Amino acid sequence: MSTVAIRNVHKSYGALPVIHCVSLDISDGEFVALVGPSGCGKSTLLRMIAGLEDITAGDIVIADRVVNDIAPKDRDIAMVFQNYALYPHMNVRQNMGFALRQRKISRDEIDRRVMNAARILGLEQLLDRKPRALSGGQRQRVAMGRAIVRNPNVFLFDEPLSNLDAKLRVQMRSELKELHQRLGVTTVYVTHDQIEAMTLADRVVVMNGGIVEQMGPPLELYDKPMSLFVAAFIGSPPMNFLEGSLNTPNALILDDGTEVALPAPVAGNGRTTIGVRPEHLFLTDAGWPAVVSVIEPTGSETQITARLGDYVIRVLIRGRTDVQPGETIHVSAKPADIHVFDTASGRRRETVTT
User: How many helices (H) and strands (E) does the chain have?
Assistant: First the structure.
């Protein structure tokens, strides 16, 4: 079973802690994405799984074997880096088969594995080219092919698409997902792009400041973020936030006096922040008044940026609109689409059960 278990892992550089007691179980064949802003610890965690970074405390278990003291080459993993790391003097065939030659595998077996990976990745016509004669997407396919030929227990990806342009990233995302569905190899994927994480992964792990903020299926994180950080990080465009005080368990009074009905009675009191995704706001004749500042049409959708009291909000509507900058609009949201958080702790507020 190609499982990965991260058990109470800590990492410090001298007196500076960067990973704080992270635990995570990854099932055989699962695709897990580690996502978060720069410096959150996701790449450090991946490098500890690979054996490229030492662990300060805790255990990493791959296929039921503790690998803390096992060299990277003996962990039966294959890693794809952000910068491709291809040998410029070797052609595609030689790059893909290099690790196998180092392991003294027979030439026939190397040729068989390289050709199989080339067919999967559409590289058959490029096997005799050097990396300088390849596009960015083709180089990334070669890097993935070099990982595939090793038949590893686990694939590790460290922001593999970040050097590609936007159109190619979308294409490669689709190819990566299809590749995982075909091979079924356990995969740990690091990215700062939450769209990549949402579209690729079976489960997303959101990291912040060296801790795990929340983990779960992508749509679970989207539908029920457990903290302000996750709510702000997951979703594009990002969630709108409005802060105020609870008037009753069912209503929030913003600082400008606007009253917002809550989806259910909320426990507690004090400063409260509500979040509404741009796509869950809609234009209405009687709602929260906001002054339009920017209109961004994309054809199928229109994004409206407006000022609601002291807050800048974004409204994403299907299709097109005649709304103009400077105009006052009224927006509203269904109570079920309003997320409620404690402002001080940043945690999701629980509703009152009756």
Answer: 8, 19
- The CATH class that applies to domain 237-342 reads mainly beta
- 36 with 45: CB under 8 angstroms? no
Which amino acid is it at 84? Y
Q: Where are the domains of the chain?
A: 4-229, 237-342
The angle, 0 to 180 degrees and rounded to 10, between the axes of the packed helices 136-148 and 166-183 is: 20
d(C-alpha 94, C-alpha 86), whole Å: 10
- 49-105 residue pLDDT tens: 999 999 999 999 999 999 999 999 899 999 998 887 889 999 999 999 998 998 889
- The answer to whether 79 and 48 have CB atoms below 8 angstroms apart is no
β-sheet with 186-191: strand ranges across: 77-80, 154-158, 186-191, 31-35, 203-208, 211-216
CA 211 vs CA 8, 33, 99, 215, 341: distances in Å: 11, 15, 34, 11, 19
- Intrachain domains 4-229 and 237-342 with the same fold: no
Contact (CB, 8 A) for 164 and 87: no
pLDDT grade, residue 354 (50/70/90)? very low
Q: Report the SS3 class of residue 53.
A: coil
Q: CB atoms < 10 A from the CB of 336, how many?
A: 8
Question: For 338, phi and psi rounded to 5 degrees?
Answer: -100, 125
What are residue 315's DSSP bridge partners?
304
CATH 3.40.50.300 fits 4-229, yes or no: yes
What separation, in Å, do the N-terminal and C-terminal C-alpha atoms of the chain show?
Answer: 45
User: How confident is residue 204, by pLDDT bands cut at 50, 70 and 90?
Assistant: very high
Q: Where are the alpha helices (DSSP H) in 31-106?
A: 42-50, 92-102
* pTM as predicted: 0.89
